[in-house]
Amino acid sequence: MSVSSSLRQSFLAGLLALLPLYITWKILAIVFNLVDGPLGGRINTLISYLSGRDLHIPGLGLLVTGLIVVAIGWLTRMVFFKRILVAIETVIERVPVVRSLYNASRQIVVPFTDKHKLPFSEVVLVEYPMVGRHTLGLVAKRRITDDPDDPRVVVFFPSNHLHLGYPVVLHRDDITPIDMSVEEAVKFFVSCGVIGDDRLIRSGGALIPIEPAPSAAVRPRPTAVPRAG
Fold first, then answer.
1. 147, 98 contact by CB (below 8 A)
2. What is the domain extent for residue 96?
3. Cis peptide before 129 (omega within 30 of 0)
């Protein structure tokens, strides 16, 4: 290996090692400036005015923003503040465009904030989309009509973004409830399947038998028909 080739490979290896660090630093710097900027500049200006000196404390806006978020989170546990939030939501529901944006945002954050408002009742394992392939799903509706004998259920198969996915109407006998709560299933989806244990294949304490997909049958070749004459 020549010296120039060795230097080129070393430079490329060093660049690949530093690039993730640089990207991470830039993202953190952007987030820091976005969060720290709105309040940090005003608070530092106020401190400089009161102290009579030109002062700048980096991260002060980020700290104050964090304290405000914690305070709001604490207030949301109080009945009086909950009533205020309900009143605000009522006003928002009357504004067409704002209502759509707000409802879409709530659908994204509800799985992380309020487990009682999750629109799913059960976690199931379904042999879907084909034989031998199993998918984790959430039961959205136990019955799609008013008929108590209707065996059809609606199962939602989310992606790791949660609010993205697709509902599928299935027969009740085609779903297998598993020993996992909806909250645990949400963590499973968000982590792309990394977070989870053997409860993914357990139902009622017993392992769910998962059979491999049957191999495609070999079709016999058609017999050639001899031509007459």
1. no
2. 76-115
3. yes
Whether 127 and 198 share a structural domain: yes
pTM of the predicted protein model: 0.46
Do residue 137 and residue 193 come from a single domain? yes
In a domain, 62, yes or no: no
Nearest to 163 by CA among 106, 86, 93: 106
In whole angstroms, give the CA distance from residue 207 to residue 18: 46
Could you tell me which of 158, 181, 154, 179 has the C-alpha nearest to residue 169? Answer: 154
Using CA atoms, how far apart are residues 166 and 159, in angstroms rounded to an integer?
Answer: 9
Query: Is 159 among the domain residues?
Result: yes
Cα-to-chain-centroid distance, residue 198:
21
Mean pLDDT by 10 residues, the chain (229 residues): 79 84 85 80 82 80 84 80 84 84 70 58 84 84 82 85 79 86 81 69 69 56 49
Q: What is the pLDDT of residue 79?
A: 77
Tokens representing 71 are: 């305070």
Instruction: Mark whether 162 and 127 lie in a shared domain.
Output: yes
122 and 203 together in one domain: yes
Angstrom distances, CA of residue 100 to CA of 43, 92, 110: 34, 9, 15
